Task: inverse folding
């Protein structure tokens, strides 16, 4: 019998069910400005029998689930994910209650936090969170003319996170040229989070001491025949806790243009608290898209809001040329595969001037085997994904270089027709993907997501063709007149070919 039915029966005979015991921590708790987080931190706790659940919402991260919440020694203990603090991916938190008042202790970045709170509601939290300026209404669609093919380049985040400076960026530009990566098509040198300093008295954002002269840096990168990108966030703080563009959108767009930047990656961090629905997120991205356009400088606009609110449907209209479809990649096969196979965005929404972005490359960072990295590259190329390298370019091994500069593989990614390939057949751990190309040929990829090598037979029908006249292996360059009887695909590996119909 269900609990509801049982309760109804008890009620008819005039009895009530004993309420399920709650912990004293159940409910919504607010903590005002726990430095370094601006605004209110909200903690929500619910218990059901012995099971406790909860989440903590800050201006930086929006809601973060409590991991392993439990009561020990009268305190509520839990861990919380700290997505952008590489050195401490999770932190321990504890809450004690004295006379019904909560006391929260933990750590954000370098700052230990110990703060008293009070009972409240989500509504109170929002009202106190921030005195923020009204967003402009959604403006007209911004016409996109950049990125006819998916952008290619390098970004600092995957390898360096916040440990980035002027010297390293220049060294990456040098290495981009000396390795031949520039000539293979990689053009953007993108500074991700961690360059920002404080705003001056007029509100103009200054770089921090590690970037003494942004304009000189941009000039240097340009002098190498490369383009340069920068990063900001729509909230008051970026994901790594630096100054965001909140309240300074036009001013920041102008600085980026004046310094000579060609690309902006715009994150959602700390905007999540008040830009919490499709409408406000879209308006906020449009606000920056329009501000970039108003500068008169051509800048690629990269939307980084992890694929929320169906961004592929409106990314172009806010001036975006690429939009992330997922949370952050990490340098391991399970995460890369989850993103690349299953969270790479709707192919119907991608095409010239607007691309699904399953996040930056990890090739060369060392966390995956050669077969796994080949799968990574093959998936990104088949998906017409932006190819933003994420390793230290100075330490590009010959094997990594060969993988990143394979002209045939890059050509699949950069094909002018701009079709995002997709799975046409799945068989156990095996997947066959197809991507039609501008010249009428079809790229086919075979992926083996399993842990043991497997054989698979391809047919002309996989490519949507009635017969096949030529087969070219994209990784080796070998050509054949017909499909072989079968392909052996290594565990977690991939094969990529291009076929031509009769
Ligand atoms: C978010 C983004 C990452 C990176 C970091 C920087 O997590 O998704 O790609 O830009 O912020 O803090």
Result:
């Amino acid at each position: 019998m269900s609990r509801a039915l049982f309760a109804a029966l008890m009620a008819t005979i005039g009895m009530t069910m004993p309420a399920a015991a709650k912990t004293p921590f159940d409910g919504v708790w607010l903590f005002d400005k726990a430095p370094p987080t601006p605004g209110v931190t909200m903690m929500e706790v619910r218990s059901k029998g012995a099971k406790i659940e909860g989440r903590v919402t800050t201006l930086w991260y929006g809601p973060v689930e409590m991991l392993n919440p439990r009561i020990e020694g009268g305190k509520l203990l839990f861990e919380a994910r700290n997505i952008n603090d590489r050195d401490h991916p999770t932190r321990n938190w504890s809450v004690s209650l004295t006379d019904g008042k909560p006391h929260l202790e933990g750590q954000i970045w370098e700052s230990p936090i110990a703060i008293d709170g009070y009972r409240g509601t989500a509504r109170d939290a929002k009202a106190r969170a921030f005195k923020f300026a009204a967003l402009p209404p959604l403006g007209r669609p911004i016409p996109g003319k950049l990125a006819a093919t998916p952008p290619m380049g390098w970004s600092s985040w995957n390898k360096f996170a916040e440990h980035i400076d002027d010297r390293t960026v220049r060294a990456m530009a040098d290495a981009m040229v000396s390795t031949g990566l520039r000539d293979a098509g990689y053009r953007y040198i993108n500074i991700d989070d961690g360059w920002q300093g404080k705003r001056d008295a007029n509100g103009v954002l200054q770089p921090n001491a590690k970037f003494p002269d942004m304009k000189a840096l941009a000039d240097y990168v340009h002098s190498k025949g490369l383009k340069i990108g920068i990063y900001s966030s729509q909230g008051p703080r970026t994901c790594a806790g630096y100054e965001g563009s909140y309240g300074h959108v036009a001013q920041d767009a102008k600085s980026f243009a004046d310094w000579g930047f060609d690309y902006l990656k715009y994150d959602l961090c700390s905007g999540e608290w008040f830009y919490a629905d499709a409408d406000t997120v879209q308006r906020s991205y449009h606000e920056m898209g329009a501000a970039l356009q108003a500068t008169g400088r051509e800048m690629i606009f990269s939307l980084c809001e992890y694929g929320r609110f169906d961004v592929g449907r409106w990314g172009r209209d806010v001036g975006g040329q690429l939009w992330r479809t997922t949370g952050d990649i990490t340098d391991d096969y399970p995460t890369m595969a989850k993103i690349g196979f299953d969270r790479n965005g709707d192919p119907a929404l991608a095409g010239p001037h607007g691309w699904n972005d399953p996040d930056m490359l990890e090739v060369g960072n060392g966390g995956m085997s050669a077969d796994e990295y080949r799968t990574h590259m093959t998936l990104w190329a088949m998906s017409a994904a932006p190819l933003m390298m994420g390793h230290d370019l100075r330490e590009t091994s010959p094997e990594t270089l060969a993988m990143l500069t394979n002209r045939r593989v890059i050509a699949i990614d950069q094909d002018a027709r701009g079709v995002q390939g997709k799975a046409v057949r799945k068989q156990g751990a095996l997947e066959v993907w197809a991507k039609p190309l501008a010249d009428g040929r079809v790229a086919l990829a075979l992926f083996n997501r399993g842990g043991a090598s497997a054989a698979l037979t391809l047919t002309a029908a996989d490519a949507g063709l009635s017969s096949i006249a030529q087969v070219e292996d994209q990784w080796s360059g070998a050509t054949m007149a017909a499909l072989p009887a079968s392909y052996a695909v290594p565990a977690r590996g991939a094969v990529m070919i291009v076929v031509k119909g009769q």
Summary: The longest helix spans residues 278-294. Residues 33 and 39 are 5 Å apart (CA to CA).
